[in-house]
Amino acid sequence: MRLPRGRRPPAVPGWPEYLAKRATLAQDPLLARFFATGMPGPETPIGEAPMVALDMETTGLDERRHAIVSIGLVPFTLGRIHLAERRYWVLRPPRPLNAQSVTFHHITHSDIAGAPDLNEILEELLAAIAGRLMVVHYRHIERPFLEAAVKARRGEGLMCPVIDTMSLEARWHRQSLLARFKRWIGRPPASIRLYDSRARYGLPVYSGHHALIDALATAELLQAQVATHFTPETPVGELWS
Amino acid sequence: MDVELLEIRQHMGRFPPFEGLSDDLLDEVAGQVEVAYFKAGSDVLTLDQEVHDFCYIRSGAVEVYRRGGELYNRLGEGDIFGHFSLLRNRRARFPAKAMEDTLIYFIPEAVFYQLCEADEHFADFVEVERPRLESTVEEHKKQNDMMITRVRKLVSRYPVMVEASTTVQEAARLISDYQASAVLVLDAPGDNPRYTFRDSEGRAWQVKGILTDSDFRTRVVAEGRPADTPVGEVIAHQLIAVQSDESVHEAMLCMLRNNIHHLPVMHRRSPVGIVHLSDIIRYETQSSLYLVSNIFHQSSSEGLARLTPDVNAAFVRLVEEGADSRMIGVALSTIGRSLSRRLLELAEAELGPPPVPYCLMALGSMARNEQSIVTDQDNALVLSDDFDPEQHDDYFLALATRLSDGLAACGYAYCKGDIMATNPRWRQPLAVWKRYFREWIQEPTPERLLHSSIFFDLDTVFGDNPLVEQLQDLVAELAPRHPRFLASMARNALGRTPPLGFFRTFVMEKDGKHNNSINLKRRGTAPMVDLIRVHALACGSRAQNSFERLEDIDRTQLLAPGVSDRLRYALEFLSMSRIRHQVIDLQHELAPDNNIEPENVSDTERHNLKDAFQVLSNAQKFLKFRYPMPSRSR
Q1: Segment B470-527, tens digit of pLDDT
Q2: Would you call B101 and A201 a contact, using CB atoms and an 8 Å cutoff?
Q3: Cα–Cα distance, B464 to B114 (Å, whole number)
Q4: Nearest by CB to B202, which of A72, A81, A207?
Q5: Distance between CA atoms of B32 and B369, rounded to whole angstroms?
Q6: Inter-chain residue contact A227 with B39, CB threshold 8 Å
Q7: CA-to-CA distance for A220 and B230, rounded, in angstroms?
Q8: Helices (H), chain A
Q9: Are A81 and B36 within 8 A, CB to CB?
Q10: Nearest to B611, CA basis, from B585, B559, B572
C-alpha cells in the first residue's frame, strides 16, 4: 500500500500548541468554532476523555485523486459507546465513482445521486466531533482525506490529534522486540487490519466496509486495547499521534 | 430500516425475548444500545451498583452470582441479565463478572419500559411476577386452537437451496439426493430486501425463486433447454412465499389464489422451509381416536403389534397439533390400556373365563395417565380373596404371560424391576395386597420404599374394578396419618435432583461441572412427579394424575399460595420438552429416549427449562423441610 507523502502532522508534544494556534488564527467561522471548543489535553486520563470513533469510505487511497463517499461516527467513552448518538452521511463526491470502488464499499451511483456535498454537512460533522478525541483505524486515510476535503472547501484544513487503533496494534505486533524477533526468524507478521485485530480480543465479526459499523468496530477495539494493555488512568498523550 | 444497524438487529433478532419483536421495535432497540467491552475477569455489574439499563451479551460469557457469592448462572451469547434490577430498586441484585473477553450491549431503561409496554411477549419474558414458564405454557395452550395454527408447524425440515448459477442438472440431482420436491434458488442481494438474509457464515443472499419438480417438466424439458442451463434462468420472476407465523389456513388460500403447490416459508427474511399442498391435506386427516377403535378390532396379538407405527404417528401428530402434556398423557395411556385390555380379552378367549374375579392394576405412568412413547410395562393382578394358588394360579400365570409378551411385542419393554403380573409376588389376592400396603405405610423405611413407590400410583385397567378401588381407599386413608411413611417417601423423592441449567452446549450442574446430555425424565419429570405424590398422599388425595393431585393439594393449606401453579407449569414444560425431543427422535427415525442434548435445545426452551429446574429445586428444598423424619422413640 502506498502511503501519502508530505503534510506530516506536527510532532506529538506540539498538539496543544498547534490547536491553540489554530484557534486564534482560524478565519473560517466553522473551523474557528471547532478549534475554540478545544480538546482533551495530553494529561487527560483516557478513562475520562470524551472520544468519537470515525470511519469513512473513499473512492481510493489518495486524497488528491479520490474522494469521500461516506462518513460514520459514534461518540464514546472508555466505559460506553453511545450508539444512539451515531451519525452517518453518504456524500456526493466531486469526482465520479469508478466501478471498482463500488464493489469495495457498496455505495452505488444511485445512493450518491441525491447525497449532499461534504460542505453541506460540515457544520453537523464538526459539531459531532468538537471537544472529542478522534479515534480511527489507520490514520493515514481519515486524517489526510478530512484535511484535504475541508481545505478544498473552506480554504483551511482540519488537522487534529487522533488515536489510531492500528498503530496501537503495531506497537505490539510490529515494533515490539518479540514481533521483530518473529519477523527475523521468518514468521509472517500478525495482521493489524481492523477485523483481524478485533479477533485477537474476542470481539465479534461484523460485516465490514460500512463507515458506521467500522466506526463502531473501531470504538470497541480501542476499549479492548485499553482494557488489555493500558489502564483508565493512562494519559491520552501516550496514545495519540 | 437502518441498514447500518443490521449487524446489531440481526444478532438480537435471533435470541429471546427479541426474536418475537416487530421489525420496527427491533430497529428502535438496536439504535439505542450502548456498547462496552469487558476483559475476562473484570466486573460487569457489582452488587448494589446503581443500574439504568439491562445487559445483552453480544459475545463472550458472563457469570452471575448470588448475594452470598454462590454461582447463580452462566450466560453466553444472546443471553440477557440485569433486568430484574430494573424492575426492583435499580440496584444490581446479582453481581456479574466476565468469564471471557465479553462485549455487552447495554439497553437503556427507557427502552426496557417501552418494550414491556409495547410487546406482551417481552413483558412476559422479563417479568418476575408472572414467570415466563407460565406464559410459555399458556401460549402453547392458545396455539392449540386449530384455526390459528401457524404454518411453521407444517415445516418438517430446512429447505434445499442452490445458487442461481447452479445447473438444472445439478439441482435435479440435489432434489433426488434429499428426496425433496423443490429447491430454493439464491443469488446475491438485489432488488428485494424482503427476502434478503445472511447465512450462518454471514454471507448475504436473496431468495430469488423456487424450482419444483414440475418446473423441470414444463420449464426445462418441454422447452428443450440443455442440462447445463443455470437454474437462475429457469425460475419464475416473482417469488410467492409466506411468513412462518401466518396460519395454515392463510397458506392454503395463498396456494389456491396463485395456483401453486409449493410454498416457501420465511421467518422474517430467512427461508426456513417449503410447504407442499399434501402437507396441508395430511394435516387435516384422522387422529388417535381412530387408532383406539382399531385396537379393539384386532383379533390377534400379532395384529396389535402391527399397530406400533400408528401409535408413534398418533403421538407425533398430537404434539404437532399442539396438544398439551395432559392430553398426550391421557391419549397414550388410553392406547396402552386399550392394548392391555384387548390382550386380556384375547387371552380369555383362548384360556377360557377366569376361575375367580380379577382386576388388572396399572402402576406408575399408566396409572397416572401420564404415559409417553418411551415406557415399560408396570402392572399387577389383584385377585379375588377366593383365589386358591393350587387351583387357580396356572391360569393367571398364563394370562399374565400372554399380556406381558403381547405388550412387549407392541413396544412396551419388560419392566426391569420385574414389577409385572408374571412375578408371583405381584399376582396376589386382595387380602395380600392390603397387607403389602399396610406394611409399606405402617413400617416404612426409605430403603424399603425405594422400589415400592411405583405402587402408590395405581389404577384399574380391566376386570373387577372394586378390587383396585379398595386399595386406593386404603392408601388414601392410611397415608396422611403416618408421618414416618411420608418422611420416607419424601426422602426418596429427593434422590434425583435437577441440574442448574445449560451453558452453551453443556448441561451445567450445581457444582459448576458440565455434562453433554441430560435425562429429562430422571432429572426433571420423575422427581417432580415424586414430590407431587408425597404431598398428595399427605392430604389424602385419591387422584393418580399429577395435575389432578395438584388440584387436590390446592384445596389444602399445604403449599404457599402460587406454589402449586408454579409446579403445574414446570411439570407441563418439562413434560412437553421431553415429548418434543421424542418427536424429534421419531422424525429422524431414531429410537426415542428421555435424553436431550443441549445443542438441540432452542434458546427459549433453554431459558424455560432452567426456570422449571429452579422451581423443582425449590420444591425439593421445601419437601425436606415439610416432612421431617420423626424421631425413632415415638
Answers
A1: 999 999 999 999 999 999 999 999 989 888 777 766 777 766 677 778 889 999 999 9
A2: yes
A3: 63
A4: A207
A5: 51
A6: yes
A7: 43
A8: 15-25, 29-37, 99-105, 109-113, 118-129, 139-154, 165-173, 177-184, 194-200, 211-229
A9: yes
A10: B572
ipTM of this complex: 0.84
B330 grid coordinates: 391421557
Amino acid letter, A97: L
Is the link from the previous residue into A10 a cis peptide, with omega within 30 of 0?
A: no
C-alpha distance from B25 to closest chain A C-alpha (Å): 14
- The answer for residues whose C-beta is within 8 angstroms of residue B96's C-beta and 6 or more apart is B43, B44, B45, B55, B62, B63, B64, B65, B81, B82
Radius of gyration (Cα) for chain B, nearest Å? 29
Total residue count of chain B as it appears in this document: 634
Give this prediction's pTM.
0.59
Which residues in chain B have their CB less than 8 angstroms from residue A203's CB?
37, 59, 101, 103
For the sheet with B262-267, list strands across it: B242-243, B262-267, B270-276
* CB contact (8 A) between residue B35 and residue A80: yes
Burial of A184 (0-12, 13-18, 19+ CB in 10 A): exposed
Q: Do A121 and A91 contact (CB within 8 A), yes or no?
A: yes
- Give the chain A residue nearest B58 (alpha carbons): A204
pLDDT in tens, B348-401: 999 999 999 999 999 999 999 999 887 889 999 999 999 999 999 999 999 999
Interface membership of A186 toward B (CB under 8 Å):
no
Cell digits of residue B171? 439441482
- For residues B347, B353, B355 and B361, what is the CA-based torsion angle, rounded to 10 degrees? 50
Closest C-alpha to B333, from B314, B352, B351: B314
The DSSP 8-state label assigned to residue B376 in this structure reads: B
Nearest C-alpha neighbor of B30 from the set B58, B6, B60: B6
**In the structure grid, which three cell numbers stand for residue B217, read together?**
417438466
* Cell of residue A142, nine digits: 481519515
User: In which residue are the cell numbers 486495547 written?
Assistant: A225
C-alpha grid cell for residue B535? 404431598
